[in-house]
Amino acid sequence: MSRYYNRVVANNNNQSYTEFLEEKQIKSIRQYTSPEFNKISAIERSKLKRVSLTWKLGDRLWKYAADFYNDPSLWWVIAWYNQKPTEGHFQIGDTILIPLPIESVLELFER
Fold first, then answer.
1. pLDDT attached to residue 50
2. What distance in Å separates the CA atoms of residue 18 and residue 13, rounded to the nearest whole number?
3. Whole-angstrom distance, CA of residue 20 vs CA of residue 28
4. pLDDT at 75
5. Which residues, including other chains, have CB under 8 Å from residue 110's CB and lie 6 or more apart?
6. Confidence at residue 35, expressed as pLDDT on a 0 to 100 scale
7. In angstroms, rounded to a whole number, what is the distance separating the alpha carbons of residues 12 and 92?
8. What residue ranges do the domains of the chain occupy?
9. Contact 48, 104 (CB under 8 A)
10. Sign, Cα dihedral of 79, 83, 89, 94
11. Strand, coil or helix: 48
């Protein structure tokens, strides 16, 4: 499943991009908005195994996805499970949970 599943595309014509937009001779930039995640219930969480790690300098969600799921493109699963849409929402020292097995996690996401 794509990380862009059920995402909204927005036109960004914010004034802070004025010079860039003029240089490229375009009126706006189309981009995906930050996702809003479905919540996972306590019962659903209890059915999954989790690996607990501490977020440190240089950590990347795609690296964790590659290590635990053998697929870096599944970085969004870890973001979704932790209810933080991007790496920018994690701070050094935060606890990050890696849900396993990936097949069960994807079933929860698709509900």
1. 95
2. 8
3. 10
4. 94
5. 1
6. 62
7. 30
8. 1-33, 42-110
9. yes
10. negative
11. coil
Where are the extended beta strands (E) located within 1-111? 9-12, 29-32, 49-54, 95-100
Measured in degrees and rounded to the nearest 5, phi and psi for residue 89 equal -90, -10
Residue 12: count of CB within 10 angstroms of its CB: 12
**Which residues lie across from 50 on neighbouring strands?**
99
Q: Is 45 helix (H, G, I), strand (E, B) or coil?
A: helix
CA gap 74, 89 in Å, rounded: 17
Structure tokens that stand for 6 in this block: 């059920």
pLDDT, position 41: 84
Cα–chain-centroid distance for residue 9? 16
Task: Please give the single-letter amino acid code of residue 79.
Answer: A
pLDDT of the residue at 18:
82
Look at residues 57, 61, 63, 94 and name the one whose alpha carbon lies nearest to residue 78. Answer: 61
In order along the chain (111 residues), what is the average pLDDT of each group of 10 residues? 67 79 84 72 89 96 97 92 90 96 85 66
Query: Exposed, middle or buried by CB within 10 Å (0-12, 13-18, 19+), for 49?
Result: exposed
